[in-house]
Amino acid sequence: MATAVGSVGADAGDSVGGGADSGTEYERAFDAAVAADERIEPRDWMPDAYRATLVRQIAQHAHSEIIGMQPEANWITRAPSLRRKAILMAKVQDEAGHGLYLYSAAETLGTGRDELLDKLHSGRQKYSSIFNYPTLTWADVGAIGWLVDGAAITNQVPLCRCSYGPYARAMVRICKEESFHQRQGYELLLALSRGTPEQHAMAQDAVDRWWWPSLMMFGPPDDESQHSAQSMAWKIKRHSNDELRQRFVDICVPQAESLGLTLPDPDLRWNEERGHHDFGPIDWTEFRNVLKGDGPCNEERLTRRRRAHEEGAWVRESAAAYAAKHTPGETGAIRA
Ligand SMILES: [Fe+2]
Ligand SMILES: [Fe+2]
């Protein structure tokens, strides 16, 4: 995938020169493709800002997938049965795969995985603030699957139609797997909710703690969202943060009823006129603090990630050595 990048508009870029690209043939072709809902591919000309926006978004998304492995991996050794352990391991492994698809999609834009990981490890790029909350009980695994993966699906299904081809295609597969994650979370919570009074209380407590952070996953309100308008014009984004958040609330309310659990919002009620559920105000101060690095687990997540990266150095080196040895024409090893 990365090799395609080398040839990205090398000539196109030269001829438009220094970012003064308005009104060029290339820009008109790009605008027409976006308007016609066609996909922009790695070798196509694209505005620098479009490329930069995609790299930023895909990187943040990829980082969230791999940091998101940590809160749940925390419960693999303590899963209550072999069946639950196998399911949880499969889910955590899926998240690693999602990271891989997304880092590969970013590579098609000319940004390597090493550079992105370096930015994550040094705190220059963010991941979703939801993963800075701790997983205190087994029920948290259910609440994460139902609410966090559920919010991720609501956000990500429209990305399957994103204007950038490699990102859109990665999202198709990711969404299928996320939907399995959401169902396993729902099923886990249902088992607890129908279990002993203690199990029911544990499920309710987890939902109480994860509900508001999962609403914050859709990002700041539309009137404060810096990047939204341009991303919508480029068809990277198809719906606003508030629209997606509303969609998620409307999906969750009947599901919470079926689960026999209560969503922790006294203002939550059906609004006949709007045809949607009204819900209470979100505590954005908390969101900003967690985003800034003051969340309960920010330091722990990054420290563990850096350590995993260092400890995995030998795997990367071995893979690179193996690939070099088996590249025809370089060492001749394959044909020897
Ligand atoms: Fe994922
Ligand atoms: Fe997931």
TrEMBL record:
Q: Which InterPro entries match?
A: Aromatic_CoA_ox/epox, Ferritin-like, Ferritin-like_SF, PaaA, PaaA_PaaC
Q: What is this protein called?
A: 1,2-phenylacetyl-CoA epoxidase subunit PaaA
In what ranges is there compositional bias, type Low complexity? 1-14
Provide the taxonomic classification.
Bacteria, Bacillati, Actinomycetota, Actinomycetes, Kitasatosporales
Query: What PANTHER family would the database entry show?
Result: 1,2-PHENYLACETYL-COA EPOXIDASE, SUBUNIT A, PHENYLACETIC ACID DEGRADATION PROTEIN PAA
Which residues does the annotated region (Disordered) include?
Answer: 1-23
Source organism of this protein record: Streptomyces pratens
Name the source's superkingdom.
Answer: Bacteria
